[in-house]
# Entry
Amino acid sequence: MGQRKQESKSPKRLGATLRQEKKKRSFKIDLTIFDGLKRVKWMPISVVAVVCIASAIVLVYWDELVSGIDREVVKIEVRGQLKYQRPDLLQEALNKHLGEGFFSLDLNAVKKEVEAMPWIYSASLSRRWPGTLMITVKEQHPVASWNREFYLNEYGEVFRPPEPVAVASIPDLLGPADRAKDVLVRYVSYRDQLAAVNEDIALLSLEKRGAWRLTLQNGIDIKLGRAPLDEKLSRFLKAYRQGLNSKAGEIQSIDARYTNGIAVRWKELPNKDDETFESI
# Structure
């Protein structure tokens, strides 16, 4: 009997031992990830997301938005001082754009159209809601005539209006077609030097072979030839200051192509030899 009781209790102890050794399964969540999310700056990310979404919507529905708010151009306003360009002709050329779409109007095309006019140098355009087109123009400013058919602006650029106009107090510049800017630069330099002796330039020419010649407003013709030009002009100016200017009305021409002086041809002595003034 004692042995049976002992044997019958043995399985219970074994079963109890097995239940104690069995490991319990559990799931743990790492909460440190939430600490990282808390440190993220969500406001800038939210703003960027909203902007991206809004931009995508605008791109998709852009045509519908423009057509819904687009109005007609009902007024074209031109600003800028015009001396040579007739305002009525400019306004007439622009009025054909009245009635076109306020937003759909191609401003670059209108800009090129305005700047193609002979007396217009540049134009800038802007829109003013609800239906006005603003155009500011800068007119060509002729500073010299070029080869008696064209004009030069202050940048040495050649332009030609449909009809020649009388422009007061500008010199005549002559030279090869591709040397317009060079001749203008030379003119400005000589003009400033001659201003010191109260003389102005009426004509400056550059021949194809490279020789320079200028004519003063008082009618004196000065031959400079080729380089060194500045030295030759300096010799003339020196002689002019030392008394030659007092006889300017008697002088027909001056040849400054000599190495050490200038030769003067007098009006009242057309058949005699030139009188030469040595450099001082």
Remarks:
- The helical segments are 2-21, 32-39, 42-60, 62-69, 87-94, 107-115, 180-195, 229-241.
- Residues 55 and 62 are 10 Å apart (CA to CA).
- Residues 2-21 form the longest helix (20 residues).
